[in-house]
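Quick question: what would this complex look like in 3D?
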Amino acid sequence: GEDVEQSLFLSVREGDSSVINCTYTDSSSTYLYWYKQEPGAGLQLLTYIFSNMDMKQDQRLTVLLNKKDKHLSLRIADTQTGDSAIYFCAEFLDSSYKLIFGSGTRLLVRP
Amino acid sequence: GAVVSQHPSRVICKSGTSVKIECRSLDFQATTMFWYRQFPKKSLMLMATSNEGSKATYEQGVEKDKFLINHASLTLSTLTVTSAHPEDSSFYICSARDLLTSLDPTDTQYFGPGTRLTVL
């Protein structure tokens, strides 16, 4: 079955790095995504990684993919208070065009 | 980037009434729209996939007579919660796929801002 799991909560100090982890089950997913949700708002696509890549860097964001272990992580460098939000990883199912979301990780950035 | 709007952003209704939520793609055509439900501190649960001009496909456990979905045009899909009850209170989010760029991984789905439904 399809299942995506994340830790529920992460607290970091402003300026530190944040690492949010995700595990997924469908090895056939072509793309894996990270979304950000601010309070009371919809989802904003942050970044994505193609399944044949190990790493992708986009400014302060670094995505690491371990396909063997089906483990995905998002690293945010120099975390700012504006980064406080819920972060969802999602896997894209090619067969149905569906996105399967993890439970979301609430990131709290302390001043 | 493409914009998806939802209306209303927030609605409060009495138990037993029906509520309609609209999802619009503002600057692109969307052959497919998705409806999600988000519970507090929980993930997004896909409710149904709405294809323009055809019946929606509902996920297992979602009552199609309870959650009526209509996708009459390439820019509009509606979700009607019929005979709403307090347990239907939730955050409903729609997303839409761009017809022209549907193969682009960054444009797979654009999300609306969500609708907060509270049933008293």
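Answer marked as accepted. The first strand of chain B starts at residue 4 and ends at 7.
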